[in-house]
């Protein structure tokens, strides 16, 4: 894949840039590098900024590295999962001492990029013929075909039910199980479609949309990795540093909302009408509590419709911040 093929318009670009605008220097981690659009913006708008880009997709690493080749002194790309944040920072520090020290910012854009969706051989799209893969990192892990071959009915129904398909989860799961094995994504999509009553298929989008999303989340362990990445980030970022997350699914957004609230409240569970009396110490403050794309952006990029931006700033607290090297 060439860098031109991987280019796509970053979602809520200006809103993300605004989150980090007050932070003019330091190391910023783009944990979902993709085509490098957000990273390029961070580099262009701050001459003293360094960006460490992480992505589990080797194609994204290659494409973004080409796109940002003019920033080699301030940009580094690593083939890493974003929940390997601590390992990535340590590796970057060893390679270039400029990247030593606690990072100033972390960005996670949790959406699947257009180039991934539009390449049938990756197996993400129900519209395009391709193998049942769906792995963000095609070099490791269990493919969708392997998952479907071993999953049980109750587990599959529960997965679909908890990831956006509550009404017909059991019917769809039962149909998927009965149709195994599958030769392609389109074959699976057709089975999903026929499992839903005709009357229900007349409204809304393609019935396989939410099913494919749920399967992708499971194949890539996205929710578990997201929680692990944020827990690490809370400990690793320097005071005054900011974390911004773009989520596209209620499960993702729920995790971000919950973990951010815990940091902002310090874990306080006192009734709001009484104020905090438990002595909880806030560890962060809201920068963006919750924001959706503008109407104009949704019209220009319909895939941004479900995006939700949340951002917090890490506060100075008594607990030590873990650092790398001498930075």
Could you give a short description of this structure?
With 327 residues, the protein is α/β, with parallel strands linked by helices.
Q: Which features would summarize this protein structure in a list?
A:
327 residues, alpha/beta, Rossmann fold, DNA polymerase, domain 1, seven-stranded mixed beta sheet, 15 helices, 13% strand, globular
Fold topology:
Elements: H1 3-6, H2 13-20, E1 25-30, H3 37-44, E2 48-54, H4 58-67, E3 75-78, H5 85-95, E4 105-109, H6 114-117, H7 144-150, H8 153-162, H9 169-179, H10 185-195, H11 198-201, H12 208-219, H13 222-236, E5 242-247, H14 250-265, E6 284-291, H15 295-300, E7 308-314
Helix pairs in contact: 2-3, 8-9, 9-10, 13-14
Structure commentary:
The chain has 327 residues and is of the alpha/beta class. It has helices at 3-6, 13-20, 37-44, 58-67, 85-95, 114-117, 144-150, 153-162, 169-179, 185-195, 198-201, 208-219, 222-236, 250-265, 295-300, and strands at residues 25-30, 48-54, 75-78, 105-109, 242-247, 284-291, 308-314. Strands 3-2-1-4-5-7-6 form a seven-stranded mixed β-sheet, sandwiched between helices. Helix 8 packs across helix 9, helix 9 crosses helix 10 (185-195) and helix 13 (222-236) runs parallel beside helix 14. The longest helix has 16 residues, at 250-265. The two termini are 36 Å apart.
CATH homologous superfamily (4th level) name of the largest domain? Vaccinia Virus protein VP39
Helical run tally: 15
Number of E-type strands: 7
Instruction: List the uncertain runs.
Output: 319-327
Strand content: 5-15%
Largest sheet: 7 strands, mixed
State the CATH class of the largest domain. Alpha Beta
Spell out the helices and strands N to C: HHEHEHEHEHHHHHHHHEHEHE
How many separate domains?
2
CATH architecture of the largest domain: 3-Layer(aba) Sandwich
Report the helical percentage: 40-55%
- Would you tell me the overall average pLDDT? 91
Radius of gyration: 21 Å
From the 3D structure, determine the CATH topology of the largest domain.
Rossmann fold
Strand order of the largest sheet: 3-2-1-4-5-7-6
């Amino acid at each position: 894949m060439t860098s031109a093929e991987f280019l796509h318009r970053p979602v809520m670009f200006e809103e993300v840039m605004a989150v980090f605008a007050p932070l003019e220097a330091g190391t910023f981690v783009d944990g979902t590098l993709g085509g490098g659009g957000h990273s390029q913006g961070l580099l262009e708008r701050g001459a003293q900024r360094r960006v460490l880009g992480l992505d589990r997709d080797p194609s994204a690493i290659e494409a973004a590295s080409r796109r940002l080749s003019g920033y080699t002194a301030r940009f580094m790309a690593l083939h890493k999962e974003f929940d390997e944040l601590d390992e990535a920072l340590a590796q970057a520090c060893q390679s270039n001492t400029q990247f030593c020290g606690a990072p100033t910012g972390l960005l996670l854009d949790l959406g699947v990029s257009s180039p991934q969706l539009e390449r049938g051989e990756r197996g993400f799209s129900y519209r395009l013929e391709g193998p049942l893969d769906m792995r963000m990192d095609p070099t490791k892990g269990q493919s969708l075909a392997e998952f479907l071959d071993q999953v049980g009915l109750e587990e599959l129904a529960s997965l679909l039910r908890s990831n956006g398909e509550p009404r017909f989860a059991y019917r769809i799961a039962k149909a998927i199980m009965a149709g195994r094995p599958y030769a392609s994504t389109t074959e699976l999509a057709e089975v999903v479609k026929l499992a839903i009553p005709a009357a229900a298929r007349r409204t809304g989008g393609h019935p396989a949309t939410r099913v494919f999303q749920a399967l992708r989340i499971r194949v890539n362990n996205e929710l578990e990795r997201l929680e692990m990445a944020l827990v690490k980030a809370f400990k690793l970022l320097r005071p005054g540093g900011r974390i911004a997350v773009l989520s596209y699914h209620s499960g993702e957004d729920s995790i971000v909302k919950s973990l951010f609230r815990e940091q902002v409240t310090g874990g306080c569970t006192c009734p709001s009408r009484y104020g905090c009396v438990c002595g909880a110490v806030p560890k962060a403050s809201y920068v963006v509590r919750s924001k959706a794309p503008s109407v104009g952006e949704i019209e220009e990029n319909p895939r941004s419709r479900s995006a939700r931006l949340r951002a917090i700033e890490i506060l100075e607290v008594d607990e030590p911040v873990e650092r790398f090297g001498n930075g």
